[in-house]
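Researcher: We're teaching a course module on how sequence relates to structure. For the next exercise, students receive a sequence and then see the predicted structure as tokens, so they can try to spot secondary structure elements on their own. Here is the exercise chain.
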Amino acid sequence: MLSSHTLNNKRLRLAYFDCVLTSSVLLIMSTLITSVAQAAEVISIKPAPNLHIRTLAASCAACHGTNGNPINVKNFTALPILAGLDTQYFITQMLAFKSGERPATVMHHHAKGLTIDEINLLAIYFSQQKRISGISPKPQLLKADHE
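Model: And here is the predicted structure for the students to work with:
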């Protein structure tokens, strides 16, 4: 049988070991948390400031071409070139579509879905695009045989 002095000594050592272990774990955890927080700061991905406007402009590309430069196709009704367009003219036309003042087949639907700020930012975006005239698709020849 162990004496009370030996038991107290073992309890004291266990308590000391428990304190050291707890302190070590807390120190390691606080270091890891700090490291993870710093790593998250370093690798945080921030969207481009004009990503929203570029996304809206991309939807215009279906009719008005990439960056506002439409493709010339025979027997196709000419659409306005948005690239390099004066910002005030763009804004005036879009507000006219939005209010219904200017008749359109689809533009009034698009304009009504935009806020005034988005229209202003789109006007700036398209005014900054380089106007490229005469974009035409290259004719393609299809081969009858597939070797």
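Model: If you want an answer key for the exercise: DSSP finds five helices and no strands in the chain. The helical segments are 4-43, 51-64, 87-99, 107-112, 116-127.
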